[in-house]
TrEMBL record:
Family, as annotated: Belongs to the selenium-binding protein family.
Keywords, sorted A to Z: Acetylation, Cytoplasm, Membrane, Nucleus, Oxidoreductase, Protein transport, Selenium, Transport
InterPro entries linked: Se-bd
Molecular-function annotations in GO: methanethiol oxidase activity; selenium binding
Pathway recorded for this protein: Organosulfur degradation
EC id: 1.8.3.4
Catalytic reactions on record: methanethiol + O2 + H2O = hydrogen sulfide + formaldehyde + H2O2 + H(+)
Record's protein name: Methanethiol oxidase
Described function: Catalyzes the oxidation of methanethiol, an organosulfur compound known to be produced in substantial amounts by gut bacteria. Selenium-binding protein which may be involved in the sensing of reactive xenobiotics in the cytoplasm. May be involved in intra-Golgi protein transport.
GO biological process, one term: protein transport
Compartments where located: Nucleus; Cytoplasm, Cytosol; Membrane
Broad class of where this protein is predominantly found: nucleus
Length: 169
């Protein structure tokens, strides 16, 4: 992708693989989720905000996959600041929870609106039968409304479990 206004090289983040549904999840550039379900692979890309949205700080000059820059993400009336960062796949593999804060110092640089508004948690529904992703328009946890907020939520975990995008090896 050729871009203007992007001050960082491509940033590849979590890869998540789960066997039962035959899925691989990747995130790139803090703007989208790509999921490959079943065999043969059928990739689905879902944009969840980020720097390359229309009116954002980055102007996409050339991209073989994008016909135009995506619209800003709005869920339950709130424009989502930031982009997908940390993920947690539900135990049944049918829901993917996503937070939008990576690291506060980087958030300040790449997503200043996120610092002012706080991060959010989104839910992506995963179709484990036909394949594909769909943002759940009825689910939004707004950490900007926390009493001592706005807060920047990063990792999410199940009690006694780990984060699907945990960096510990």
């Amino acid at each position: 992708m050729g871009a203007e206004g992007w001050c960082s090289p491509g940033l590849w983040e979590p890869w998540l693989t789960w066997e039962r549904e035959g899925g691989i999840l990747t995130e790139a550039n803090g703007s989208s989720c790509t999921i490959i379900l079943h065999s043969p692979p059928r990739p689905t890309q879902l944009f969840l905000g980020g720097s390359i949205v229309k009116g954002g700080p980055v102007q996409v000059l050339e991209d073989q996959e994008l016909k135009s820059q995506p619209e800003p993400l709005v869920v339950k009336g709130k424009r989502v600041a930031g982009g997908p960062q940390m993920i947690q796949l539900s135990l049944d593999g049918k829901r993917l929870y996503v937070t939008t804060s990576l690291y506060s110092a980087w958030d300040k640089q790449f997503y200043p609106d996120l610092i002012r508004e706080g991060s959010v948690m989104l839910q992506v529904d995963v179709d484990t039968v036909k394949g594909g992703l769909k943002l759940n328009p009825n689910f939004l946890v707004d950490f900007g409304k926390e009493p001592l907020g706005p807060a920047l939520a990063h990792e999410l975990r199940y009690p006694g479990g780990d984060c699907s995008s945990d960096i510990w090896l």
